[in-house]
């Protein structure tokens, strides 16, 4: 009986673990005839504080996307890594000074390595300027949040460069 109950819960557990890794909500658990009577329900997803759109644990601290004072912020342990006007999805809305710097320092450059993605604005601006861009970011959550909340569509890898 116990083995049967555990095996019926395994698909839900696998879905919940996958959801936890991807940051999405776990699927609703449905009762089945093989359920253990009086089993506690799965824990509810944590409620985020007001203004916090997303949160994830990272090697450097808590990675958050917040909206306040008309800005969408990407923070790591409360330190702002990127800030853009809230609601803006056009990631390359204005010239990025780093594009000018790269063009001045290396006029014939074809590729560029960006260390640290942030909102993805600089990487996107460099790509829009015709450069092939590689991005290395320590925190996988930053890459996920740059795509979901800041409109970044380019390539990025989660790496510390020591692999």
TrEMBL record:
Provide the alphabetized UniProt keywords.
Signal
Spell out the residue ranges making up region: Disordered.
27-52
Q: Name the source's superkingdom.
A: Bacteria
Keyword DNA repair in record: no
InterPro entries per the UniProt record, alphabetical = SAM-dependent_MTases_sf
Q: Which Gene3D superfamilies match?
A: Vaccinia Virus protein VP39 (3.40.50.150)
Q: Where are the transmembrane segments?
A: none
For bias kind Low complexity, which ranges apply? Answer: 27-37
Q: Which residues form the signal peptide?
A: 1-19
Where is the sequence biased in composition, kind Pro residues?
38-49
**UniProt cross-references to SUPFAM superfamilies, sorted A to Z:** S-adenosyl-L-methionine-dependent methyltransferases
Q: What is this protein called?
A: PABS domain-containing protein
Instruction: Report the source organism.
Output: Polyangium fumosum
């Amino acid at each position: 009986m116990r083995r049967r109950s555990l095996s019926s819960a395994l698909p839900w557990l696998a879905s919940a673990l996958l959801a936890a890794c991807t940051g999405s909500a776990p699927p609703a658990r449905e009762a089945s005839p093989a359920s253990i009577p009086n089993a506690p329900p799965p824990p509810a997803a944590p409620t985020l504080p007001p203004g916090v759109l997303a949160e994830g644990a990272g090697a450097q601290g808590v990675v958050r996307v917040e909206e306040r004072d008309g800005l969408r912020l990407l923070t790591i342990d409360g330190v702002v890594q990127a800030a853009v006007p809230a609601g803006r999805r056009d990631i390359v809305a204005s010239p990025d000074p780093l594009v000018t710097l790269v063009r001045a320092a290396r006029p014939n450059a074809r590729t560029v390595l960006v260390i640290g993605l942030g909102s993805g604005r600089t990487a996107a601006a460099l790509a829009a300027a015709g450069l092939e861009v590689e991005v290395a970011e320590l925190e996988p959550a930053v890459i996920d949040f740059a795509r979901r909340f800041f409109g970044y569509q380019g390539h990025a890898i989660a790496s510390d460069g020591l692999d």
